């Protein structure tokens, strides 16, 4: 029988450690000394869970969807309360298993045709120019709020057809939903108090419901209309499935891409030699730099699975219906896969092996290509027009054990000029 004893150096609920960045050392020890380790429930209310921290073990768990379920107990570490305020099992794409997951994904893909994605990229290129225009004359900025935040927000809002005047609402709602441990986004900053997160999710849900009804009454040549009308052999997304996907798109598409942008820029500013490499051959290096930014930054720290049968991972026996936490942030710095894993190296030959988009399999991130396009567009614009951007003070890290991000990254650059003609976004 497997011994369930938490190693004395492991505490994955230590928010201060994650804010300081000391979690990387904890995970290094776990990979070497306890690659599959037990962790007690900190509140004493649950049965605890298993931590999965190496690259190959994470891929095993993520890809074996028959043994490790996303739908049984959802993909979030905490059983209750959930940040969304809804029971999303079997409804949210990331909280489904096959065959439901397969059907759901096929229908959603109908909305993201090459033509629609191409039109979206053209729009985002224009928005990126305006975003840089808004800060380039000042010589200083908060990189998160002035640059990293804007393009993902505009992308999701454009997909959803949200008017410009309402787009800040999206940002506020999604931040409150996922920032339940951050006083900047919630009053309490306490995970146990989910009232604000639940209220934000409800407001977003109502907004998406209204959006669906508007598109049904007035169809447009956009992704939302295509999703509503997507059909495979007579099967369509239900109203609830559409609404839940829009919620997922709003949160995942906004928060994770914004954090990946901030991580990437912090990596470049902290390693001027890497920034010089990028600028020296922007077209040739930007794609791999994006992969390295996702690996090094790991915007999503973990996902959960639940065993459906007794099984074994890394020689450790797991029982049926046990909670398993996959730590992507650890797998992305596995020294058995990545040489000098703590270094930010845009020429890393195997950067693409990162698990920042899920580690392959059925749950590979549906928005990975869109996220990469957004990152390519904004980093190309910054490297071209603000090539001397430097950090001024350390970033303010968001307190979270789920998502790795910053609320503020002060930066400076030589003042430049707007691109004529100066125009307001529609």
Overall mean pLDDT? 87
Main sheet, how many strands, which sense, barrel? 5 strands, mixed
Order of helices and strands: HHEEHEHHEHHHHHHHHEEEEHHEEEE
Low-confidence stretches: 181-193
Output the structural class.
alpha+beta
Overall number of strands? 12
Oligomer: single chain
Q: Span from first to last CA?
A: 64 Å
Which percent band covers the strand fraction? 5-15%
Helix content: 40-55%
Task: Give a structural overview.
With 426 residues, the chain is α+β, with helices and mostly antiparallel strands. The protein has 15 helices and twelve strands. The strands form four sheets. The chain has a five-stranded mixed sheet with strand order 1-2-8-5-3. A three-stranded antiparallel sheet has the order 4-12-9. Strands 6-7 form a two-stranded antiparallel ribbon. A hairpin with a 2-residue loop joins β6 and β7. The longest helix has 32 residues. It starts with 14 loop residues before the first helix and ends in a 14-residue tail after the last strand.
What are the defining features of this structure?
15 helices, 9% strand, 3-stranded antiparallel beta sheet, 426 residues, alpha+beta, globular
């Amino acid at each position: 029988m497997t011994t369930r004893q938490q190693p004395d150096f492991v505490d994955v609920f230590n928010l201060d450690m994650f804010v300081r960045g000391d979690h990387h050392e904890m995970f290094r020890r776990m990979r070497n000394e306890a690659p599959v380790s037990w962790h007690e429930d900190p509140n004493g209310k649950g049965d605890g869970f298993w931590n999965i921290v190496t690259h190959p073990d994470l891929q095993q768990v993520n890809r074996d969807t028959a043994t490790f379920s996303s739908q049984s107990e959802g993909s979030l570490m905490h059983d209750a309360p959930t940040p969304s305020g809804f029971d999303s099992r079997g409804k949210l794409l990331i909280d489904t298993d096959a065959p439901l997951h397969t059907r759901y994904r096929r229908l959603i893909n109908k909305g993201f045709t090459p033509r629609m994605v191409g039109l979206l990229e053209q729009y985002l290129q224009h928005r990126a120019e305006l975003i840089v225009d808004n800060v380039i004359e000042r010589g200083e900025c908060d990189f998160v709020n002035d640059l990293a935040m804007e393009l993902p927000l505009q992308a999701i809002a454009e997909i959803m057809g949200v008017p410009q005047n309402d787009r800040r609402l999206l940002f506020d709602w999604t931040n409150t939903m996922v920032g339940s441990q951050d006083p900047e986004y919630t009053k309490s900053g306490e995970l146990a108090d989910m009232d604000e997160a639940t209220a934000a999710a409800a407001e977003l849900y109502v907004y998406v419901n209204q959006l669906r009804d508007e598109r049904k009454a007035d169809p447009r040549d956009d992704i939302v209309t295509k999703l509503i009308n997507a059909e495979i052999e007579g099967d369509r997304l239900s109203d609830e499935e559409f609404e839940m996907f829009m919620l997922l798109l709003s949160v995942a598409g906004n928060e994770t891409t914004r954090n990946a942008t901030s991580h990437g820029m912090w990596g470049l500013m902290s390693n001027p030699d890497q920034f010089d490499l990028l600028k020296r051959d922007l077209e040739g290096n930007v794609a791999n730099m994006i992969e390295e930014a996702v690996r090094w930054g790991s915007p999503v720290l973990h996902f959960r699975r639940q065993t459906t049968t007794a099984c074994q991972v890394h020689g450790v026996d797991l029982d049926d219906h046990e909670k398993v936490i996959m730590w992507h942030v650890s797998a992305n710095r596995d020294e058995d896969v990545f040489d000098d894993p703590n270094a930010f190296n845009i020429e890393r030959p195997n950067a693409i092996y990162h698990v920042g988009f899920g580690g392959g399999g059925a749950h590979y991130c549906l928005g990975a290509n869109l996220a990469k396009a957004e990152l390519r567009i904004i980093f190309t614009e910054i490297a071209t027009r603000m090539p001397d951007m430097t950090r001024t003070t350390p970033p303010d890290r968001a307190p979270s054990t789920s998502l790795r991000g910053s609320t503020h990254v002060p930066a400076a650059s030589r003042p430049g000029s707007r691109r004529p003609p100066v125009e307001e976004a529609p």
